[in-house]
Design brief:
3 strands; alpha+beta; elongated; single chain
Length: about 130
């Protein structure tokens, strides 16, 4: 008995990893995501390693997770993987308040983001 397993949404040459509740604005995360989109995975890892942005550390972990999923779960060749899709989504927003002059208040918004990374195996060029 039990529940039937869901049909796979990706093709046989793709693997995915996702991260939820990353404490950064989607705009800043999207800058990092778009910089690696379309790159080979080894070059993308190198770029994220030497990036000056704080969130690049988490994106690098996510990319390593997607590569591990491709290798272990879907038996894809790691040397031919590239980042085919990197999408960023906005989730909740923490709202904080800071007292300002003359009894007023300043609003502080602390956004949270989600990220989804898809790696694909390149076709062989003969």
């Amino acid at each position: 008995m039990g529940k039937q397993s869901a049909e796979r949404r990706l093709s046989d040459t793709e693997a995915m990893a996702s991260a939820r509740s990353l404490r950064v604005s989607p705009q800043k995360l999207n800058l990092v995501a778009q910089s690696i989109c379309g790159m080979a995975c080894d070059k993308a890892l190198a770029e994220l390693t030497f990036s000056k942005r704080r969130i690049a550390v988490d994106v690098r972990k996510l990319l390593q997770s997607a590569i591990a999923n491709a290798e272990n779960n879907h038996h894809l060749d790691v040397d031919r993987l590239y980042v085919s899709e990197a999408s960023v989504g906005k989730t909740s927003v923490m709202k904080r308040w800071r007292p300002r002059a003359r009894g007023r208040v300043g609003r502080i918004i602390k956004p949270v983001s989600n990220m989804r990374l898809v790696v694909r195996e390149r076709e062989e060029t003969a």
